[in-house]
TrEMBL record:
Domain 3-hydroxyacyl-CoA dehydrogenase NAD binding: 312-349, 353-465
Annotated keywords: Fatty acid metabolism, Lipid degradation, Lipid metabolism, Lyase, Multifunctional enzyme, NAD, Oxidoreductase
Pathway recorded for this protein: Lipid metabolism; fatty acid beta-oxidation
Domain 3-hydroxyacyl-CoA dehydrogenase C-terminal, first and last residues per copy: 468-564
Record Pfam families: 3HCDH (PF00725), 3HCDH_N (PF02737), ECH_1 (PF00378)
Species per Swiss-Prot/TrEMBL record: Paractinoplanes ovalisporus
InterPro entries found in the cross-reference section: 3-OHacyl-CoA_DH_NAD-bd, 3HC_DH_C, 6-PGluconate_DH-like_C_sf, ClpP/crotonase-like_dom_sf, Enoyl-CoA_hydra/iso, FA_oxidation_alpha_subunit, NAD(P)-bd_dom_sf
Catalytic activity of the protein: a (3S)-3-hydroxyacyl-CoA + NAD(+) = a 3-oxoacyl-CoA + NADH + H(+)
Family that this chain belongs to: In the central section; belongs to the 3-hydroxyacyl-CoA dehydrogenase family.
Protein name: Enoyl-CoA hydratase/isomerase family protein
Length: 664
């Protein structure tokens, strides 16, 4: 796993190369190999001038061994402590070796990979477009526990380490890492990187870590008066939610900064073990590593060979059309965007994008993605207009967020090639793509849409057609629940607060304003039209009153549940109180929180039972990436599976708040 080679100058290169794996991780093979390499370095110390640590893989080092971490139980705590102590002990023996040690970071160094690099005295990163450095641990419910917290704090200072690296989970380009001071130099070729590494070694025979030098102080110091404020600041940043990973990262950093290096390392290990053996890290690893890998790997992609897309037509240069065009162009696909006038079309202009009002310019496109107004007749017309012009077998995709695909497909001559490709706004930032399969959509169309989604860097879930598909339907359920609470007389600030406390990124009333109440109303009316037994809820009256009576359809009009001034929320609308039932009702906070989490989980279970969802993985990933279901749950269906008594609690909520909570 680690090749040890010494040259004539006495410089040893340790090349990490886990056999049979695509990337290096901190698995058992690595641990044994690293110990052996460090033993040998110490044994041969007299003949060693310095050490270069690099990798033979495309990436430098991928980080922790997540499959084994995901299995950790509380009984494993002693073994985990021993393992982490070994890993950290070897890093420590490397950084106190008494010879310069340089990390030659030839590709991505994330999590444990960055920790390997931090245990070196000098870091040179290869400045290639794909290289990223960061600590994604917090996004998996973990903390960088192989010295990552301890060293980053000592290198950058408490506040920069926390707010830039440890608590964000962000992945930085090498140039940003250089600016922040976590790497020391960049190189543009592997050869240049190795030359720089050798030169640095020869120029710095006395290399040591700053914290091992006399008189070392943490950068920025530790103003005692500020320390107690950290937890409160974090609480504010988390909007009141209580999440173990950020809390433990903060505790590790603040406690560790006040003690010596070795004690800080033990504190870090203990906090990591608490996270590792708990449920939330398992949920998050389950969703964001395992489910994600399955979904992106094509779990729901039919196993058929299809030609790759070569030229994309986007219809509509509005917010979504422009975003979709940019995403395709960024992936190197030629794109033609059509709108009704050249001026409107020009709004989507950008590198690799041609804009036009002339349908003839779409000749030869083998993918059409339609993003015109949400109007079925208009959508039918634009497809009829472009079909004679584009490639005879072009994939025909609609970005509709609410209109059933099977119905739209009836308007085109080739329904087998018709599919939903539901992107999320803003397209450049949102990682999810919901592929919607109509009753007559072919497997080849699904595979083509899936491959296109992957090519432009999206995570594509595949769902069957239905009202609101999966994401719009379930987010509608969340919003409905909040509006129902409002109708019951629960104060609007309590509703928003309960959701934030449960871990949602945005309060549901603010969200309703964003997506617009007109859309919420439209999806619900489709349900009503389709079923005689559809439960009419007080929330429905309230939405109708907001849209039809008070003309407050949401943010785009500047009037919704919130009042807006200059695009910003200025406060809740003061007429809201008048919409509640006069009796009012006091609902405990725990019930408010659970009503959100359960309403969505039960609806997702119904989606699975009805076949709207084809796999649980798609449901979990779609809920986290697309509609803001709290990531700590591991996704909407895992929440139901992992809850101690999901059915019991659902039955309790059903008795108190209505049949929609009845266990599925
Ligand atoms: P938009 O109103 O920003 O853009 C629609 C564009 O279509 C306009 O530029 C309009 O001039 C153009 N258009 C109208 N008739 C046309 C025609 N005959 N040929 C070519 N272009 C024509 O709307 P937005 O928000 O971009 O939404 C577009 C579609 O995407 C809708 O179906 C919507 O439901 C869906 N969607 C919207 C999301 C959002 O967050 N806004 C999210 C996901 C899907």
């Amino acid at each position: 796993m680690i090749t040890y080679s010494r040259d004539d100058d006495g410089i040893v290169t340790l090349t990490l190369d886990d056999p049979g794996q695509s990337a290096n991780t901190m698995n058992a093979t690595y641990v044994a190999a690293m110990s052996a390499a460090v033993d040998r370095l110490h044994a041969e110390r007299d003949t060693v001038t310095g050490v270069i640590v690099t990798s033979a893989k495309k990436t430098f080092f991928a980080g922790g061994d997540l499959p084994s971490m995901a299995r950790a139980t509380p009984e494993d705590a002693p073994a985990l402590f021993k393992l982490l102590s070994t890993i950290k002990g070897d890093f420590r023996r490397l950084e106190t070796y008494g010879r310069p040690v340089v990390a030659a970071i030839n590709g991505a160094a994330l999590g444990g990979g960055l920790e390997v690099a931090l245990a070196c005295h000098h870091r040179i990163a290869l400045d290639t477009p794909g290289t990223r450095l960061g600590f994604p641990e917090v996004t998996l419910g973990l903390l960088p526990g192989a010295g990552g917290v301890t060293r980053t704090v000592r290198m950058l200072g408490l506040a920069p380490a926390l707010t830039t690296w440890l608590l964000t989970g962000r992945r930085y380009r090498p140039a940003d890492a250089l600016a922040h001071g976590l790497v020391d130099a960049l190189a543009s070729t592997p050869a240049e990187m190795l030359t720089q590494a050798r030169e640095w070694i020869l120029a710095n025979p006395d290399a040591a870590q700053p914290w091992d030098r006399e008189g070392y102080r943490i950068p920025g110091g530790l103003p005692a008066a500020q320390l107690p404020a950290y937890p409160a600041t974090l609480r504010k940043q988390l909007k009141g939610a209580s999440l173990p990973a950020p809390e433990k990262i903060l505790a590790t950093a603040v406690e560790g900064a006040q003690v010596d290096f070795e004690t800080a390392q033990v504190i870090e290990t203990r906090h990591l073990i608490t996270l590792l053996t708990g449920r939330i890290a398992k949920n998050m690893i389950g969703a964001l590593f395992f489910d994600m890998r399955a979904v992106n790997g094509g779990l729901a992609r039919p196993a058929v060979e299809v030609p790759p897309a070569t030229r994309v037509a986007v219809l509509g240069a509005g917010m979504m059309g422009a975003g979709i065009a940019q995403a395709c162009a960024k992936a190197g696909l030629p794109v033609v965007v059509k709108d009704v006038t050249p001026e409107l079309a020009a709004r989507a202009a950008g590198p690799g994008i041609t804009t036009t009002a002339d349908v003839a310019d779409l000749a030869g496109c083998d993918v059409v993605i339609e993003a015109v107004f949400e109007d079925p007749a208009l959508k039918r017309d634009v497809f009829a207009e472009v079909l004679p012009v584009v490639a005879p077998d072009a994939l025909l995709a609609s970005n509709t967020s609410t209109l059933p695909i099977t119905g739209l497909a009836e308007g085109v001559s080739r329904p087998g090639d018709f599919i939903g490709m539901h992107f999320f706004s803003p397209v450049g930032k949102m990682p999810l793509l919901e592929i919607v399969v109509g009753a007559r959509t072919s497997d080849a169309a699904v595979a083509r849409a899936f491959d296109l989604g992957r090519r432009i860097g999206k995570t594509p879930i595949v769902v069957n057609d239905g009202r609101g598909f999966f994401t719009s339907r379930v987010i509608g359920t969340f919003i409905d629940e909040a509006i129902g609470m409002l109708a019951e007389g629960v104060p609007a600030p309590s509703i928003e607060h309960a959701a934030l406390q449960a871990g949602y990124p945005t309060g549901p009333l603010a969200l309703a304003d964003e997506v617009s109440l007109t859309l919420v109303q439209r999806i619900r009316r489709q349900f009503e039209a389709a079923s005689d037994s559809y439960e009419r809820l007080p929330s429905h009256e309230l939405v109708d009153a907001m849209v039809d009576k008070h003309d407050r359809p949401g943010r785009s009009s500047g009037r919704g549940f919130y009042a807006y001034g200059e695009e910003k929320r200025t406060g809740l609308w003061d007429g809201l109180v008048s919409l509640a039932t006069p009796e009012g009702r006091s609902v405990p906070l725990a019930d408010l929180r659970d009503r959100f989490l359960f309403a969505e989980a039960l609806d997702a279970q119904r989606c699975l039972a009805e076949g709207v969802l084809r796999t649980a993985e798609d449901g979990n990933i779609g809920s986290i990436l697309g509609i803001g279901y709290p990531a700590w749950t591991g996704g909407v269906l895992r929440f139901a599976d992992q809850h101690d008594d999901f059915r019991g609690r659902a039955a309790e909520l059903a008795a108190r708040y209505g049949d929609r909570f009845a266990p599925v």
